[in-house]
Design goal:
This protein has 142 residues and is of the alpha+beta class. It has one domain: Glutaredoxin, CATH 3.40.30. The strands form 2 sheets. Strands 2-1-3-4 form a 4-stranded mixed sheet, sandwiched between helices. A hairpin with a 2-residue loop joins β3 and β4. The protein is elongated and about 50 Å long.
């Protein structure tokens, strides 16, 4: 299965998502999107395929969001996309693309919705929160 993750290794959610993909026995294509951002067309496609809007995927924390005036509700999706292309740190992460769908994996266990049920044993996030049981099955509430 071909899986692509737009990854930021400094982000715990992104690291947990990548680890869950690998726990399913899949070595994904990892795109360090801050160094190799998606094209505008690719970003628009990811957002649409995930069933989201530009406003729903823009990252506020640790970005120039406020300084650029992006909180203003009159800022259009086109303007938000322009800002994300100019400042890739504004793209929330991680986005994961598989043949089963595209998701913005926040929280990280959202990736399980678009992966095959091939997980190799238990999985816990970096903070110790259990996501998969000893049989590789999703724990209720995760």
């Amino acid at each position: 299965m071909t899986v692509t993750i737009y990854h930021n290794p400094a982000c715990g959610t992104s690291r947990n998502t990548l680890a869950m993909i690998r726990n399913a026995g899949i070595e994904p294509t990892v795109i360090a999107y801050l160094q190799a951002p998606p094209s505008r067309q690719a970003l628009e496609r990811m957002i649409a395929d995930a069933g989201l809007t530009a406003r729903e995927v823009i990252r506020e924390k640790g970005t120039p969001y406020a300084e650029l005036g992006l909180a203003d509700p009159t800022v259009s999706d086109e303007q938000l996309l322009d800002a994300m292309i100019a400042h890739p740190i504004l793209i929330n992460r991680p986005f994961v693309i598989t043949p089963m769908g595209t998701r913005l994996c926040r929280p990280s266990e959202r990736v399980l919705d678009i992966l095959p049920d091939t997980h190799e044993g238990p999985f816990s996030k970096e903070d110790g929160e259990a996501v998969l049981d000893a049989n590789g099955k999703r724990i209720a509430g995760a």
